[in-house]
TrEMBL record:
Domain of life: Bacteria
Pfam families noted in UniProt: YhfT
Bilayer-crossing regions: 6-24, 45-72, 92-112, 133-153, 159-181, 193-209, 235-255, 276-309, 315-340, 360-391, 403-427
Protein name: Transport system permease protein
Coiled-coil boundaries: none
Keywords (A to Z) from UniProt: Membrane, Transmembrane, Transmembrane helix
InterPro entries reported for this sequence: Uncharacterised_YhfT (IPR019733)
Length: 429
């Protein structure tokens, strides 16, 4: 059943991409819209999709998937973006995209099991150290609201948000160690990162709602009503893939972001759900505005389906609830557009939240990659990651910063195995 879920997600996502209905890569939606309106040829669209997504699949999605043995959604949906847009949109192109998308999904889950078995036969099994790549992500994630506040409003407000968030985190640590909170005689343990994150988000949205817009507002929903209507016409497709992804998440087959993925790998499903929820809040302005402006939706919607999957008691309820949630999202697009227009600060915060998350992930993954590399090959690991990062910067960043740490750790693991096989390096204890 688990394999079937992944295969079906691959099929449906590839078809949605092929029919120009939905793509996962946020940057591709405006480009797909250009193709729909006749300003971009299909071949150019396919090449652009490959250039924008392939590096992220190899350098971002796959390393995280390997490090936790849980599929990061980027691994499958960025791939199906390429598959769908690279195949012609005609009577034979769409079935071909569906078949390739299904095979890709099957290969991803089958290959994952093969990779795990392969690591066991290596001279130096570096799968466990590779898991350290994501360790700093969970802790540093709580700082993104403060960074978003600093980026959008002011450094002073950002510092205030950061200090209060840090204080709340330490108060949560104290409350846990002293068993301060009890229910029915049983001590209640608070998630310290989660508490800090909630406080930071309260600060962010309080500032955002207070921000005023200069000049007349624009009713996005009325300007782009035809595009909103085209999205609503395809709501059944979104319900299908939304239900499938929510179900797969409930089975702990996949995660929507590196933070919740690492929490799931540590067995913290509730914490993963909280992190996924915070991320979803930040993505609502981005997904809604790009969808309304382009007529192209995201196969994961506002990413709330991951929250549904993590908090549902069983897989079938997750499927039904996920379908219902994404249906509600699509139907509410016009209202969301008007709300975002009424509070421009909230609309603008979506991009700042996304940028803040990206910057934090770049730093956290570089640290995590360095720690993992140094565990695999003490001394050499730090040397390699530092050199890899700096050379990538000088070369104009052909590899996105977020991918340097995970890719570098994998490279160190491969090099270390070669050195061990040659007798040049001793396996670290």
């Amino acid at each position: 059943m688990e394999t079937l879920f992944v295969i079906l997600i691959g099929i449906v996502a590839a078809v949605l991409s092929n029919r120009n209905i939905a793509v996962f890569n946020d940057g591709l939606r405006p480009i797909v819209s250009e193709h729909i309106e006749g300003r971009l040829k299909r071949r150019e669209l396919g090449l652009t999709a490959f250039a924008m997504s392939f590096g992220l699949v190899i350098g971002f999605g796959i390393p995280f998937t390997l490090s936790a043995s849980i599929i990061l959604i980027h691994s499958i949906l960025l791939g199906t973006d390429i598959i769908g847009l690279a195949t012609p949109k005609n009577k034979w192109g769409t079935p071909v995209a569906a078949v390739i998308g299904g095979l890709y999904g099957w290969g991803l889950i089958a290959g994952l099991e093969g990779f795990v078995k392969l690591f066991e036969h290596l001279p130096l099994n570096f799968l466990d150290p590779l898991g350290q790549v994501g360790t700093p992500v969970v802790v540093t994630f709580m700082a993104f609201p403060a960074l978003a506040v600093a980026m959008q409003f002011s450094i002073k407000k950002g510092i205030l948000t950061f200090v209060v968030s840090a204080l709340v985190r330490q108060l949560a640590v104290w409350a846990n160690t002293s068993a301060f909170i009890k229910i029915g005689g049983n001590a209640v343990s608070l998630n310290q990162e989660g508490m800090a994150l909630i406080v930071g988000m309260i600060f962010l949205f309080t500032y955002a709602i207070k921000e005023k817009q200069e000049g007349a507002s624009i009713d996005l929903a009325s300007v782009f009503s035809d595009k909103v209507l085209s999205i609503k016409k395809n709501v059944v497709f979104f319900m299908v893939i939304g239900g499938l992804i929510a179900g797969a998440t409930n089975l702990l087959l996949m995660a929507g972001d590196p933070i919740s993925l690492n929490l799931l790998a540590e067995g913290k499903q509730t914490d993963a759900g909280i992190a996924a929820g915070a991320r979803a809040i930040g993505f609502i302005p981005l997904v809604a505005s790009t969808a309304i402006a382009t007529g192209v939706y995201s196969p994961v919607g506002f990413t709330l389906i991951f929250v549904v999957g993590l908090f549902s008691p069983n897989v079938w309820l997750a499927v039904l609830t996920g379908a219902a949630v994404i249906f509600g999202e699509v139907m509410l697009l016009s209202y969301i557009a008007r709300f975002l227009d009424k509070f421009p600060g909230v609309r603008n915060s979506g991009e700042n939240i996304r940028n803040a998350m990206t910057k934090l992930l770049e730093v956290a993954l570089l640290i995590g990659g360095a720690n993992a590399s140094n565990t695999i090959a003490p001394g050499f690991g730090f040397f390699f990651i530092a050199g890899f990062y700096l050379i990538n910067e000088v070369a104009g960043r052909p590899i996105v910063r977020m991918a340097v740490g995970p890719l570098g750790a994998i490279a160190v693991g491969i090099i270390a195995n070669i050195l061990v096989a040659l007798g040049i390096m001793v396996i670290p204890e």
